[in-house]
């Protein structure tokens, strides 16, 4: 009898500090109308001083555990590309703070597709009996890696976290994950990148500090002329990313639907990574999905990277837009490039989904 990973809990969290389009327009050459019409975003939440990705992850993880009515999970996977620090991974610390003890805990790095990759990884470990339950958290704080002077990226991204609790169950019960499809194209890795912080720029940083690496004195800046100080910022080729996002997201949804033997019109809710409302609309058009079957919260949170899919899931489920029995496909796209999707019939959750905190909620960190 085969085992499947079944969604049993859902929770999300956004930090209380809000940045509106007008706030950005006061500091950058942009305006509310441009941002709304080109992206669909009205506001985003950002971390405050001293807050980091693990703080967001802990809050979302706690909410997903409460939604499932359990206190523990046997495995923790954190999808993030803004870990608290390059090493060690963020997940073990999150596991400790959630009281999960010495469970296996690791990060998955697939940028905005991270949550789908992490779900697939955890589902595989449940299916093979390595774990009976898993907490999968998508958490990112992109506001910490944006160039304050870059209007193209500053307007898009926000911070947050979302989480799902998986348990072992049967492949034919509601909530069972199925039809996983994943892909990547590393030839396009420069379309969205944060060059610094890794081994390639380690040499440049060593030189900037007047140090030596492997016995050689190195010049500041890498072969491409990047100054070390700027390598910590996210860069993006917006138009090319837009085109790739539409094409790859539509392809991965089709692949998952085929694996599930669901005709595209049988999908009740399409839960796309919230990158840009125009990208989601274009994907919906390609697939012939009516607009009211696309769930969205990008107006309130922006692009929250690995947190985006569980955040919009929690919001849609709490609002009653995502209901038990709905056939749902989750699909992500992001840097790498990476993309992926997975399907499930939406289950009835014991404690209900717990959505992200609104701006009036007081922070609990
Ligand atoms: N405010 C005002 N003008 C802006 C702006 C901003 N925040 N950002 C860019 N512009 C300007 C550009 O400089 C350009 O000016 P120019 O014509 O004088 O050169 C103009 O607006 C049009 O730029 P363009 O890049 O063609 O706009 P666009 O319609 O493609 O929208 C993005 C830009 C970034 C919103 C869009 O390309 C996008 O969403 N790309 C995908 C990004 C994404 O989702 N990344 C994450 C994937 S996981």
TrEMBL record:
The keyword Phosphoprotein does not apply. Pathway: Lipid metabolism; fatty acid biosynthesis. It comes from the Bacteria. The keyword Acyltransferase applies. NCBIfam families: fabH, PRK09352.1. Belongs to the thiolase-like superfamily. FabH family. Catalyzes the condensation reaction of fatty acid synthesis by the addition to an acyl acceptor of two carbons from malonyl-ACP. Catalyzes the first condensation reaction which initiates fatty acid synthesis and may therefore play a role in governing the total rate of fatty acid production. Possesses both acetoacetyl-ACP synthase and acetyl transacylase activities. Its substrate specificity determines the biosynthesis of branched-chain and/or straight-chain of fatty acids. This is Beta-ketoacyl-[acyl-carrier-protein] synthase III. It comes from Actinacidiphila polyblastidii. The lineage of its organism: Bacteria, Bacillati, Actinomycetota, Actinomycetes, Kitasatosporales. The gene is fabH.
């Amino acid at each position: 009898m085969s085992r499947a990973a079944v969604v049993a809990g859902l929770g999300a969290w956004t930090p209380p500090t809000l940045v509106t389009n007008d706030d950005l327009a006061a500091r950058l050459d942009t305006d509310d109308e441009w941002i709304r019409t080109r992206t669909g975003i009205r506001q985003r939440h950002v971390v405050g001083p001293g807050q980091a990705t693990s703080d967001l992850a802990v809050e979302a993880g706690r909410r997903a555990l409460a939604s499932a009515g359990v206190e523990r999970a046997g495995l923790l996977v954190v999808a993030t590309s803004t870990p608290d620090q390059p090493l060690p991974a963020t997940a073990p610390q999150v596991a400790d703070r959630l009281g999960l003890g010495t469970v296996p805990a690791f990060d998955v790095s697939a940028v905005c597709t991270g949550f789908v990759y992490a779900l697939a990884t955890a589902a595989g470990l449940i299916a093979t009996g390595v774990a009976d339950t898993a907490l999968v958290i998508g958490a990112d704080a992109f506001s910490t890696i944006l160039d304050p002077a870059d209007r193209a990226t500053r307007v898009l991204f926000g911070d947050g976290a979302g989480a799902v609790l998986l348990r072992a169950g049967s492949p034919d019960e509601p909530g069972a994950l199925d039809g996983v499809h994943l892909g990547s194209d590393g030839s396009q890795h420069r379309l969205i990148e944060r060059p610094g912080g890794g081994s390639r720029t380690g040499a440049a940083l060593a030189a900037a500090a007047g140090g030596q690496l492997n016995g050689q004195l190195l010049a500041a800046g890498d072969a491409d002329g990047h100054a070390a100080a700027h390598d910590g910022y996210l860069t993006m080729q917006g138009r090319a990313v837009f085109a790739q996002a539409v094409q790859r997201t539509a392809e991965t949804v089709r692949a998952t639907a085929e694996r599930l033997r669901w005709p595209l019109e049988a999908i009740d809710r399409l839960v796309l990574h919230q990158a840009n409302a125009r990208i989601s609309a274009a994907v919906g058009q390609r697939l012939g999905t009516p607009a009211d079957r696309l769930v969205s919260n990008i107006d309130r949170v922006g692009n929250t990277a690995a947190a985006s899919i569980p955040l919009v899931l929690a919001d849609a489920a709490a609002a009653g837009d995502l209901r038990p029995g709905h056939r749902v496909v989750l699909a992500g796209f992001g840097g790498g490039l990476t993309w992926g999707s997975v399907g499930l019939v939406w289950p009835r959750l014991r404690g209900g989904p717990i959505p992200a905190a609104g701006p009036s909620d007081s922070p609990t960190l």
